[in-house]
C-alpha cells in the first residue's frame, strides 16, 4: 500500500513539473519574441504612433497592420527599405479630387493635406482677386471638388467714370454687386445682368434720369397783305404792327449719363396771343402801256448805263419812291439823276424797254442811269454800255 501511494505521488510531481516547464518555455518564448521586435515610429497622415514589428521591410509593416497601400500613396522610406530599430516611416494616403480651373475639369490623385498644399503641389499660382472654393485652409477629402476662377481685368464705365477692375467669370449682376455698384430703377446695363462676363468684356452702367424742363418760346406772327388801289403798284403801308406771341412748354427730358437723348412735350400754355402784321400793298398801275408807234412827247438823249438788283450789297430792296422791288420783281425801273430825268417819268430804253424813273443812286449823276433786273445773271449780262433813252412824259 505504501509503495502504491509513493508511485502515485511521483506521477503527480512529474505532471506538475511538465506543466511548469511548458509554461516557463512559453513565457520565455513570448518574452524573447517581444524583446526581439524592432521599434518603428509610424506617421499616418500626420498622426504619429509607435509600432513594434518583426517585419523585415517597410511593406511588411503595413501588411502586419492590415493596411493596403495604393500606388499613389506617399510612403517614405520606400516599401522595400529594410526595417531597423527606431526607423521613422511616413505614410500619406492618396485622395482623388476633382479640380475645375476656369471651367476645365481634371481628376487628380494627391497626398496633400489641404487645398492650399494641393495648389502648391500642382504649381497653380493665385493672385488676390482669384476665387477658390472651398477655402485654402479646407482639408482634402476623397472626391472633393475644388473650383478655381482666375480673375481678369474688365473695363467698367459707371456713368461717366471709367476704370479697370478685376473680375472672375461671373454674371454681370454678381460683378456689379462685388464692385458695390447699385442700380436705380431706370438705369441700363450693357451687357444684360444675367449674362456672363468674359475676358475683354466692357461693362457699361448707363445712369438714366428723367427731369422736367420748362421753357418759354416766342410765336412768330404772320404778315397779312391787303390790296390798296390808292397806293402805286409796289408801294406798301403798314396798317397794324405785328406782335410775337409767347407760350410756356413743359417737357419731360430723358438724360443718359447727363446727356439729353430725348424730350417729350407734356404740357403747353399760351402766355400771350400773337398779333399778325397787316400791310397795305399798292395796286394802282404806275405805267400806262405805250404803243411802239406812239409819237415821242419829249426829248431823246444818250446815257451811260449799268445794271443793279434788289439784293445788291447795301441795297434795301426799296426804291427812292417807295417801291418794293423784292415783292415786285417784274417791274421795269431805272435809277436816274432827278435833275436830268425827273422821278416818275415814263421812258423807253433801247434794249431794255418801257420803264419808270423811280429810283436814284449816289453814283447816278448826269447822263447816267441804272437799270433794274430781278436776277443777278441778267444784270451781269447787261454790263456797262451807252444807249439811247426816250423820255416820254
Explain what this protein looks like in three dimensions:
- The chain is of the alpha+beta class and 393 residues long.
- The protein folds into 5 domains: 38-92, Roll (Ubiquitin-like (UB roll)), CATH 3.10.20; 95-149, Ubiquitin-like (UB roll) (Roll), CATH 3.10.20.30; 152-206, Ubiquitin-like (UB roll); 211-281, Resuscitation-promoting factor rpfb (Resuscitation-promoting factor rpfb fold), CATH 2.20.230.10; 294-391, Barwin-like endoglucanases.
- Helices cover 16% and strands 41% of the residues.
- It has helices at 2-35, 58-64, 115-121, 172-178, 376-382, and strands at residues 38-44, 47-53, 74-76, 87-92, 95-101, 104-110, 131-133, 145-149, 152-158, 161-167, 188-190, 202-206, 208-219, 223-232, 236-240, 245-256, 259-272, 277-284, 300-308, 333-335, 346-349, 353-359, 368-372, 385-391.
- Strands 19-23-20-22-21-24 form a 6-stranded mixed barrel. Strands 2-1-4-3 form a 4-stranded mixed sheet, with helices on one face. It has a 4-stranded mixed sheet with strand order 6-5-8-7, covered by helices on one side.
- Strand 9 (152-158) and strand 10 form a beta hairpin.
- The termini are far apart.
- Mean pLDDT is 85; it is low at 287-297.
What is the element layout, followed by pairings?
Layout: H1 2-35, E1 38-44, E2 47-53, H2 58-64, E3 74-76, E4 87-92, E5 95-101, E6 104-110, H3 115-121, E7 131-133, E8 145-149, E9 152-158, E10 161-167, H4 172-178, E11 188-190, E12 202-206, E13 208-219, E14 223-232, E15 236-240, E16 245-256, E17 259-272, E18 277-284, E19 300-308, E20 333-335, E21 346-349, E22 353-359, E23 368-372, H5 376-382, E24 385-391
